[in-house]
Design a protein that fits this description.
By secondary structure, the protein is α+β, with helices and mostly antiparallel strands. It has 2 helices and 6 strands. Helices cover 36% and strands 39% of the residues.
Length: 148
């Protein structure tokens, strides 16, 4: 899946917002104490969960983090591996974001196909676009606070 979108913010604002968002999510979900600056190349963690089917391990890693330019994240589980990249390019309107996500399904039972695959893609694209719009609004509020 690939999404290209122009956002009304600087590359640095986008990168910092990504770091803040990821640190917040990790702090809430894993009860860890991370600062946004901890989210950089090489950061990783794994989570073990116990289900009725046994213990599952999910790994999360920041593969590459270049401030204001690019961030690449990977998720690995027994069922699937995904790689998500955020490439940031300066643009007269702010920045051009190229979002790419590739998922490799290791368990054929969880791999969507046919109409289910199309619906999954449509929902994912909609969700990502909503998140980007929310991010733009958050950055705008931050700017207004700085001016006040």
């Amino acid at each position: 899946m690939k999404i290209e979108r122009t956002l009304n913010m600087s590359p640095e604002e986008f990168y910092e917002a990504m770091q803040e968002s990821m640190a917040h999510q990790i702090n809430v979900e894993l009860s860890k104490s991370l600062s946004p600056e901890d989210i950089q190349t090489g950061y990783s963690h794994k989570v073990k969960t116990t289900t009725k089917n046994g213990t599952r391990t999910t790994r999360f890693a920041v593969v590459k983090a270049i401030p204001g330019k690019e961030m690449v994240i990977s998720h690995h589980s027994q069922d699937a591996r995904s790689k998500t990249s955020y490439k940031i390019f300066p643009d007269p309107a702010g920045l051009k974001l190229v979002f790419e996500q590739n998922t490799e399904y290791l368990n054929p039972d969880v791999k969507p196909s046919g109409i289910r695959l199309k619906i999954t893609d449509i929902l994912s694209i909609g969700k990502i676009n909503r998140q980007l719009t929310d991010l733009e609004m958050k950055i705008e509020k931050k700017r207004k606070k700085k001016k006040a």
